[in-house]
Amino acid sequence: MSYKSGSGFALQISMIRMMLEKESQLSSLVDNLSTSVLVLNPQLVVEYMNPAAEVLFAASSRQSTGQSVKDLLPAEPAFIERIRQVLTNGQGFTQHEMTLVLTGDKRITVDCTVNLEESSQQQRLLVEMKQVDQHLRVSREERLLAQNVATRALVRGFAHEVKNPLGGLRGAAQLLEAELPDESLKEYTQIIIGEADRLQKLVDGMLGPNSLPNMTILNIHEVLERVRSLVLAEVPEGVLLKRNYDISIPEFLADKDQLIQSVLNIVRNAIQATEGKGTIELKTRIERQLTIGSIRHRHVMRLDITDNGVGIPEEMQQRIFYPMVTSRAEGTGVGLSIAQSLISRHGGLIECTSEPGETRFTILLPIETESKENA
């Protein structure tokens, strides 16, 4: 009898060990996931956080366990309420490309899934988040780079088709002017010649510089100070030009004149956006291990040109680097297109985000290439 009892006890111990081993294996699997996992109780208190979630929220599991999810997402009451509703209706949800604001005003974009898990009359919420900022950024950059290549090809083809007839038109007007007996009639040929010259300058402006970059060692802040001195002579009194430099950024190879032209085009746009009263900030930083398109760089110089002007209309933001795209009646719409083209010659890229009160153009310039990889 005691033998049977002992066997039953041994069997229970064996089953418990198997369960513990399975739980340990399951925990190990979850710990190694690249997806962030949170387990919440019905009071929305964190019971578990895997290492990926620790990285995402910049908080340790020991620190966060036992705290409300509100402490992790203090600026997201609507999202937390939506999580709470899952407890009521039992219906989980998935949302793609959702922007969340973490502590410290850090913004992330995630694909998020929330499900209700019930066992032994216990309810728990399983929150899974996959950060997609990098994927979205790489896709956007590749689209911008492809757009720039296509635009350059289109503009060059257009310029070739326009420049030849313009030259013939101007030459014919000059010949006609020489044969006119009445000086008063030359006024009309001068109009033709003047308009032909104007169109020629417009086409040349769309093409931008044709020469290859003249690469020299330079400091980005020398470029910015040159731009600043140029715009201070023309900036309205109500516009404040601020500097926020990281002086530790090393020197690198670039074409100084082309960088000045690119930054100057963007800053002038920012001045016009402030409508004579506002603030423009030039901010430099170093980004490490950053991918531009499909190329990974060890160090990238990041220049943010931010203004608090009226912003760029949403319908224009996807086309802002196309030539001839402008929201100003007097604008030609070639400045940003040229700036993007010049930066791309350096292996870099210009990005833009805008909303009323804050428009940011970000210039990314590689300082040293580490490796190439498909994003």
Please identify the top-level CATH class of the largest domain. Answer: Alpha Beta
> How much is the average pLDDT?
79
Structural class call reads alpha+beta
CATH architecture of the largest domain: 2-Layer Sandwich
Helix count, DSSP H or I runs of 4 or more residues: 11
Q: Could you give me the name of the CATH homologous superfamily of the largest domain?
A: Histidine kinase-like ATPase, C-terminal domain
Structural commentary:
This protein is α+β, with helices and mostly antiparallel strands. It has three domains: 101 residues, PAS domain (Beta-Lactamase, 2-Layer Sandwich); 75 residues; 165 residues, Heat Shock Protein 90, CATH 3.30.565. It is built from eleven helices and twelve strands. The chain has a five-stranded antiparallel β-sheet. A five-stranded mixed β-sheet has the order 7-9-10-12-11. It has a two-stranded antiparallel ribbon with strand order 6-8. β9 and β10 form a beta hairpin. The protein is elongated and about 105 Å long. It starts with a helix and ends with a strand. The N terminus and C terminus are likely disordered.
Question: Summary?
Answer:
This protein is of the alpha+beta class. The protein has helices at residues 2-31, 51-57, 61-64, 69-72, 77-89, 133-179, 186-207, 220-232, 256-273, 314-317, 335-344; strands at 36-40, 46-49, 93-101, 107-119, 122-131, 216-218, 239-244, 252-254, 278-292, 295-307, 349-355, 358-372.
